[in-house]
Specification:
Shape: globular
Helix content: 10-25%
Number of domains: 1
Number of strands: 3
Oligomer: single chain
Strand order of the largest sheet: 1-2-3
Number of helices: 1
Strand content: 15-25%
Length: 75
């Protein structure tokens, strides 16, 4: 898809995400799983904290956002 094919609303949404990325605190990161977008806190050294089994540590979830469609799958 070409950026020229987007609606004004879609273009504005992308611009808003880019602006947010410039202000996003390095102490947090986003994680997508099963259609839910999670805001996660980073560990003491800025790392994405994982459990011993290799999954994301749920103790570091700050909140979740269900109003933005997303998919945590790989290409």
């Amino acid at each position: 898809m070409d950026m020229d094919d987007l609606t004004k609303q879609e273009t504005n949404a992308i611009a808003a995400l880019r602006m947010l990325a410039g202000r996003w605190p390095r102490t947090m990161w986003l994680f997508s799983a099963s259609g839910t977008l999670y805001v996660m806190r980073c560990g003491e050294n800025g790392e994405h904290v994982m459990t011993r089994g290799g999954g994301v540590d749920p103790d570091y979830i700050v909140t979740h956002i269900m109003d933005i469609d997303n998919d945590g799958g790989d290409w």
